[in-house]
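fyi for ur records
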Amino acid sequence: MIDILSWVFLMGGSFFAIVGGLGLLRLPDFYCRMHGSGITDTLGAWLILLGLILQAGLTLIAVKLVMIGLLLAFTSPTATHALARAALESGQEPLVDEDAEGGEDGSSNT
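which gave:
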């Protein structure tokens, strides 16, 4: 039963990692790409680590994997935020859809 649950976590983490990679290729601008990859990167890594922890059992290896997970939980969102902030301060403008914003006068079409 533990092996099956472990493989479910490993496959789920792999799925999110692949979706994050596709998001880097398909999303329209820098900020959307960062959002897509940042979320799937953290979730995918945690699922893979959970699967590996189940495979390792109650050993020192599991403790090390938990420490890696905690490191990722703090560094990944911080790095994504720092990159977005640096891009914004350097003049990188987000892609804005004029139709979604309601046009020039701010009124919506609905």
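The radius of gyration is 19 Å. thats all i got for now
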